[in-house]
Every structure is written in structure tokens, then in C-alpha cells.
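Now read the record:
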Amino acid sequence: MRSIPLQLPYIIYGDVKLAQSSVILRYLGEKHGFGGKGAKEKAEIAMAEAAIKDLRSAYARVVYSPQYEQEKLTFMPQFEKGIEDISNYLGSNKWLVGDNITYADFFLYEFLCISQLFEPSCFKKHPNLKQYTERFKALPKIKEYMATERFISWPLNGWSASFGGGDAPPK
């Protein structure tokens, strides 16, 4: 088995050893039927994943900045535009690329949960995003998992983050 650089998270799944959150998510999604059907749908999933990752990376730069409050003010127009773009892309679809859940929906759900804590009013103009998160949480296996001690909702980030890394979520 080839080694990977010392990095978290990582997964060893049979003879497959992978690092990088999005790579792991994509691999497990493909392996378990959440990778989309056909080249067009797979491309749409990858496109959505990349857009979410871009916004998530921008968020991370803000919350790990020593000038968090100032950076947040500068970031908010980009954040609000990103949330609006996600809302528009989702539209009235049940899931991100249609009627079937894909691995990108897991990625989006995580980001939307973080977004609600980062800016509690972010769904005010986008009820479809609130409905989406409720629909995701209501999935039987997700609901079951979230009720266990294994589910960890906080911290969102590392301890050095100015937001999402402390002992308790904001009230």
C-alpha cells in the first residue's frame, strides 16, 4: 500500500488509503452510489463541490485571521453573494443536482450549518436553503447518527480560529 503524507483526515478503506476531506467524500460517494449518473451529472456535482470549496476556503481565511472582525466585515458581501448563488443554483430542486442526493449534498449541508452559525440571518432571504438543511437532517440514517454520541457539532474549526474553534457555539 502506498503511503500518504502525514495528514488528517485520512481513511483506509480496504486497500485504498486516501487523505483530503473532499477526496475522501468523493471516493465514498462514488463507492456507495452517491456520485451521480452520467458525465453531465458528475460534472455538475464537481462544479458545485468546487464552488462550495471556494467559498469555504474564503470563510476559513477570515475565521483564522488575527483581524477576524475586520476581515469578516470585508468578507460579508462575498459570503452573502455565495449564499445567494447557492440558493439560486439549488432553486426548487430537492437536492443539489436534482432528485437524488449526491456526495456534494453532504459537503453543502456541512457548509450551510457552518454558515448559519457564522451569520445566523443568512437564510432569511433564502428559505429554500433552510428547507434543504431540514430535509437533510430528516434523512433517517442522518437523523439516527446525529442522535448518537459520535456526532460532534462543535468545534467547527481548529482551536486557533477566531470563530468556530472555542469551547461552545455562539448563543
Remarks:
- The longest helix spans residues 38-63.
